[in-house]
Amino acid sequence: MALSETFKVRNQSDDLMKLGEIYRTFVQKGIEADPRGKERIDAILEDSKKGLEKLDGIKKELADKDVAWNPYTDCRILYGDEDREIKSILAGIDITPGEIVLADRMADKGKKIDLVLAHHPHGIGTSRLDVVMKLQPEQWAKFGVPIAQAESAMAARIKEVHFATKPRNHTQTRDAAKLIDMPFMCAHTPADSVGYQFLKDYLEEKNPYSLGDLIDVLLEIPEYQEGEKVGAGPEILVGSSKGTCGDKFVFFTGGTSPGPKAIKILARAGISTIITMHLTDALKKECEEEGIYVVIAGHDSSDSIGMNLILDEIEKKGVEVHACSGFFRHKRS
User: Fold this and answer.
1) pLDDT score of 51
2) Scanning 37, 71, 202, 245, which has the fewest C-beta atoms within 10 Å of its C-beta?
3) Where are the domains of the chain?
4) CB 69 within 8 A of CB 47
5) How does residue 259 score in pLDDT terms, banded at 50, 70 and 90?
6) pLDDT over 80 at 163, yes or no
7) pLDDT 10s digits, 63-75
8) Other Cβ atoms within 10 Å of 331 Cβ, number
9) Strand 235-238 to strand 293-296: parallel, antiparallel, or no bridges (unpaired)?
């Protein structure tokens, strides 16, 4: 299926959105915001199509066909027919069987839910999270890091994540959705890329001088205000409020955190301040050694930004959105 065929424009604005259309909306918005650019995405999709064509036998039968048009393995319909009509969504950052049951229970309270939407991945979205991590070296290259160094720095981390995700229970929440016939999907990297572009553009416009100024401008964003209310707002992890921001790097998209080797090459490329959702102790130590400042923007609040921007578009088409499980709903349009 050609990408242009995949993202058909709806002819009748009063028609109910279908599950497949919501899925494709997330993918399309992710492609538009992808820091690698559309030309590179087209090349990745072409390679994926060729890879599918080379398969035969049981491998071909079991292959994930969506890779031919969707470059994000962590954005998938996990249960439900694409033609299912969707009037209302229960969206959350982390979805467990508890939220699936909650969605079903809400009907008894007069709020029927047609789709449960998770931000963090499930199923193949988790077991193949390493695939979307390949976005990161190409993103760093745009900041002046030689691509060979970037890929080398990420290679061990990608392999680590690949095998670390294998033992998980990949179908627990999907199985709960299937048992009560509740459509279920996840949308991770597309939302993160949309959030990345939003925050990158916002910080370029605001241009905070110091880390203290950076915290102040982040707190002008409604999602970070909600995070602050529960003690999870923006905070300086490495540096002080008077530290100068310099060149900033927003670490928001590409699956999960990189390995420690990434910090050294970003420092060489001239990055002074990293704005991220969260940071491991190993990465924090590397930042301290390399003299890179770090501001933790907040996890659920940062995830909420990209989800909100895409759900705004979906709500315009008549779908009602209910928030749960760490998702701070804020409408911008």
Assistant:
1) 96
2) 37
3) 3-190+302-324, 196-299
4) no
5) confident
6) yes
7) 999 999 999 999 9
8) 11
9) antiparallel
Q: Which residues contact 60 (CB under 8 A, 6 or more apart)?
A: 52
The CATH number assigned to the domain with range 196-299 reads 3.40.1390.30
The residue among 70, 278, 103 whose CA lies nearest residue 187 is 70
CA dihedral for 213, 35, 153, 148, sign (positive or negative): negative
Tokens of 108: 């008894």
Q: What does pTM read for this prediction?
A: 0.93
In angstroms, the CA 235 to CA 218 distance is 10
Give the pLDDT confidence of 91-105 residue by residue, as tens digits.
999 999 999 999 999
Q: How far is CA 212 from the centre of its chain?
A: 27
| Segments of 169-243 assigned E as strands | 184-187, 235-238
Strand partners, 235: 296
Number of Cβ within 10 Å of residue 26's Cβ equals 28
Residue 3, SS3 per DSSP: helix
Q: What local confidence, expressed as pLDDT, does residue 15 receive?
A: 79
